[in-house]
Write a structure and sequence with these properties.
alpha/beta; 2 domains; two-stranded parallel ribbon; two-stranded parallel sheet; 4 helices
């Protein structure tokens, strides 16, 4: 952070993902708050159309980077428990999102766990 704060004035504008983070970085790096713009993470749903009907099978969806920090493993574990419980036998899991090379081992572990065997 020290080097970034020293060079903060070389940047015209900053983008923060929340008001909180914007304030935190403004204070930590002594940035003029007018140079910090908040752009929230998420998907604008205003222009999306609802599905005409429910899917044939109950489905859990995941759309985010496939990384441990986003909690994909928690969802996979919950999905497995729901399937083992037997109350929703036709439940499906759909996973989509970005992954980088560093995520590959983690993704393979989750795929193996979902298939019922440990990744080697």
């Amino acid at each position: 952070m020290e080097g970034a704060a020293e060079r903060a004035n070389e940047i015209d504008s900053y983008i923060a993902v929340s008001e909180y983070y914007g304030r935190k970085m403004t204070q930590a790096m002594s940035i003029d708050p007018q140079r910090v713009h908040v752009v929230h993470n998420g998907i604008a749903i205003e222009d999306l159309n609802a599905a005409a009907s429910l899917p044939a099978q109950p489905t859990i969806g995941y759309l985010a980077r496939m990384t441990e920090g986003k909690g994909l493993h928690v969802l996979v574990d919950a999905f497995i428990k729901l399937k083992q419980d037997g109350r929703v036998p036709s439940l499906t899991l759909k996973v989509a999102g970005a992954r980088i090379r560093e995520d590959e081992k983690y993704v393979k572990q989750q795929q193996a766990k979902r298939r019922g065997r440990e990744s080697r």
